[in-house]
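Intended use. Records like the one below are meant for learning the mapping from a protein sequence to its folded structure. Do not use them to infer anything beyond what is encoded.
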Amino acid sequence: MTALEGWTEGEHTDPSTGVSHPTYRRGSGPGVVVVSEIPGITAEVLTFAEEVVAEGFTVVLPHLFGAVPSPSGPGAAVRTLAQVCVNREFNKLRVGETSPVATWLRSLARTLHAELGGPGVGALGMCFTGGFALAMMVDDVVVAPVLAQPSLPFAIGRARGADLNLSPADLAVVKRRAAAGCSVLGLKYADDPTVGTRFETLTAEIGDAFVRVELPGKKHSTLTAHRQQVAVDRVLEFFRAELL
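Structure written out for the chain above:
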């Protein structure tokens, strides 16, 4: 039996680097890669992912950190943070650099699109992984990127709080694709300090291509632990418009 009931366990290896990570897959239709937040693939992440499946999409959950399934709560978060803080696939503090894991995620999206076809692939990251969907947009197959409370690099200081976790070359591609019509959806609580001023940076860099959804309050996880149905509905609407 798979670790996640109803989900098919697999693995993707990026042929360009040899890097492999486990994956969990469910559904049919165009592909959507949902990258979980810390502490990992929790019951709340699964609830959201299954809502995406129910809308007519093939959802792939990469397993990049944490247990499967992952418990929720501060204890699990601390254990996972200790794991990712020594993992060089994730850029936690440097500005102007893309996290190396983006290369693997782009390869996963290309493979999924080659199999399923359609206009492209959706990508959604949350919190620690929020900006990864933007990094995946560097590849043309990713046509529906969603950033839920993007929190890397950690918003310690003004420069990090404004940084998009992208190299200058990757940012240039994101700007080109946005100018050509690829929208980026962002969600956060208005007073969430972990996001810093990244939404302002995105508006400055790509203008109206950045669609901002800001919820009142100082909570954090817009789609999971502190989910608001209006945010979930907005993501599903975005995927339907761009992928179906």
